[in-house]
Amino acid sequence: MAQNRHVHIANDLRRSIKRGTYAPGTPIPPETALMEQYRASRPTVRIALAQIENEGLLIRLHGRGNFVRHQSGLIAYSAGSRTADRIADTNAALQVSVSQRNVNASDDQAALLGLPVGSALAEYRYQGHYRTDPCSLTLIYVPHSVGTIDISVHDATPTGEDVREALAQVGVHIAETRTRVASRLPSPEETRTLAIGSGAPVMEIERVSLDAEARVVELARIVLPGFNAEVHFDDRAPAPKLEAA
């Protein structure tokens, strides 16, 4: 019965959110009120809340309660050029903040960049928000040996394509991009930064950019909540022909 009860509570709260009983940005009743309303234990209520939090309907703010998340729609990433303009329009409603600092390459960063561990890197951190709710995190690394670039907050995109444009402005042109997409559970830092539940899968996009000499000039790691993310791939190559049996 306890399992069925938490499913019933989650379904009821989900319906209330979707029909506007609880508006975006407003709190839902506290746990004690939900326990009384549904005649359920605190653990049962918390399981129900975690379920709809992992679906992207709630944001849990420590010490303040559970709030209805603003729905930004899909956040899109293009791994090709043909869909780039449409993707830019899709992401235009997001507000993006950018910060920069110097770091030393970790083991995995050094391996992807083809540099010694500890090499000097510029880190560009992009945090995307829809209204007041966080919805994307992008970390981009450019080796100091590649060059120094200036990033304008006014031109910032949630997935950091403006870094590649800034590289082109200083004569560093990208000839090849390698993209890896993976689905996984978020790290503790990502749950805090993106305000998502620990059981909400994220989509991680790893982008490695090379110049004409096969030198890695940029490494990007983009993390998007799985409940509102999509990736577009462009392939101009014709489909392979199958040999007749």
Report on the architecture of this protein.
The protein is of the alpha+beta class. The protein is 28% helix and 31% strand. The chain has helices at residues 2-18, 31-38, 42-54, 84-91, 107-113, 161-169, 188-194, and strands at 58-61, 65-68, 75-78, 95-104, 120-130, 133-143, 176-184, 202-210, 216-225, 229-232. The strands form 3 sheets. The chain has a 6-stranded antiparallel β-sheet with strand order 4-5-6-9-8-7, with helices on one face. Helix 1 crosses helix 3 (42-54) and helix 2 (31-38) crosses helix 3. It is elongated, with a radius of gyration of 21 Å.
Please provide a brief summary of the model.
With 245 residues, this protein is α+β, with helices and mostly antiparallel strands. It folds into two domains: 2-68, Winged helix-like DNA-binding domain superfamily/Winged helix DNA-binding domain (Arc Repressor Mutant, subunit A, Orthogonal Bundle); 75-232, 3-Layer(aba) Sandwich (Chorismate lyase), CATH 3.40.1410.10. Helix content is 28%, strand content 31%.
